[in-house]
Design a protein that fits this description.
The complex is a heterodimer of chains A (81) and B (150). Chain A has one domain. The longest helix of chain A has 20 residues. In chain A, a hairpin with a 2-residue loop joins strand 1 and strand 2. The N and C termini of chain A lie far apart (33 Å). A three-stranded antiparallel beta sheet of chain A has the order 2-1-3, sandwiched between helices. Chain A has 81 residues and is an alpha+beta fold. Chain A is globular. Helices cover 47% and strands 21% of the residues of chain A. In chain B, strands 2, 3, 4, 5, 6, 9, 10 and 11 form an eight-stranded mixed beta sheet that branches. A three-stranded antiparallel beta sheet of chain B has the order 1-13-12. The chains are: A alpha+beta (81), B alpha+beta (150). Chains A and B meet through helix 1, helix 2, helix 3 and strand 3 of A and strand 2, strand 3, strand 4, helix 1 and helix 3 of B.
Chain lengths: 81, 150
């Protein structure tokens, strides 16, 4: 895999993780308890289940492997692993 | 060399997010993971395994490993290759054993279990710190966190 492709992948991740960390409260208010799909600092889909997100991205013809999918916990909900 | 970690600082939702890029054969792609020093092992989530088609089929079948709500089937991958990146854009290749959620087995479980399992992020556990000889710095007051090679 070319170094350029790897760095491009990191760019997508960094944009996504910084978007999540900077906007977490707002995301929680709007999408708490749901899965969201993020592309270029924009939530392009949200759904109750991971499978539904995948289906929605398929319908939108978005490249699933290049989209960040994240579960957003509800406000006040603490997730322990 | 250091490797930056993003912080979520919201009260009650504090979290350390760390980006990795999978170089596993036929499974190239990015994963946002959660740094969890309470976990002894690194675990590739159901979402990441499904999205990047990281298959553990053929690898060591494990008993159910317990994390999250209830137990989730997973398998051990003896060699998982991924890349981490420094703030200066330098990359470091990592190869270490990880656990991967067994998506085909998970799909045989109840809808409730599947939904619950997919809510769990990829976890970077203590084994990453130990095997890669890293220290973890997390300074929430100054909004700064990173791994540093020892």
């Amino acid at each position: 895999m070319a170094e350029q492709e790897i760095l491009k992948e990191f760019e997508i991740l960094e944009t996504g993780s910084q978007f999540i960390s900077s906007n977490f409260k707002g995301l929680q208010k709007k999408f708490g308890g749901r899965f969201i799909a993020i592309e270029n600092k924009e939530v392009v889909a949200n759904a109750d289940t991971f499978d539904d997100i995948r289906r929605m991205l398929d319908v939108q013809k978005l490249n699933f492997s290049k989209i960040i999918v994240q579960f957003i916990p509800r406000e006040g909900e603490i997730i322990l692993y | 060399m250091i490797f930056n970690i993003d912080l979520i600082k919201e009260a009650g939702a504090e979290r350390l997010l760390f980006n990795i890029v999978s170089m596993h054969p036929h499974s190239f792609g990015g994963i946002i993971s959660v740094v969890d020093t309470g976990s002894p092992r690194t675990i590739i989530s159901a979402g990441a395994a499904s999205k990047l088609k990281i298959s553990a089929t053929g690898e060591k079948a494990l008993p159910i490993c317990g994390f999250g709500r209830g137990s989730i089937p997973c398998r051990k991958l003896d060699k998982f290759k991924f890349i981490i990146k420094s703030p200066e854009g330098k990359t470091k290749s990592v190869e270490m054993p990880v656990y991967v959620v067994d998506v085909p087995a998970l799909n045989n479980l109840s809808q409730e279990m599947r939904i619950s399992a997919y809510q769990i992020d990829t976890i970077i556990g203590l084994d990453f710190l130990i095997s890669q000889k890293m220290r973890l710095i997390a300074d929430f007051k100054n909004n700064m966190a990173y791994f540093e090679e020892i």
